[in-house]
């Protein structure tokens, strides 16, 4: 992975995994760098603090999961029938 966005994503994924293993207080930039295969300096280039790395890492992991769940919900006719008021909202966000 050579591009800026690819490196940034690699760091976010590594940070989320280390966070899950060691918790917030136990997650160190060095651990994230080792997991991602990048230097601490590169992490600091993209994220200027521990907090500015870990919060986006959690969000980065949560958003795709929510997107997948919403799409599955829309594909389930049973859920659409049970909650018809939510269907138009989700369809406007996840229109294909």
TrEMBL record:
Keywords: DNA-binding, Transcription, Transcription regulation
Domain HTH tetR-type positions: 5-65
GO molecular function: DNA-binding transcription factor activity; transcription cis-regulatory region binding
Organism: Microcella putealis
Pfam families: TetR_N (PF00440)
Listed name of the protein: TetR family transcriptional regulator
DNA-binding region: 28-47
Domain of life: Bacteria
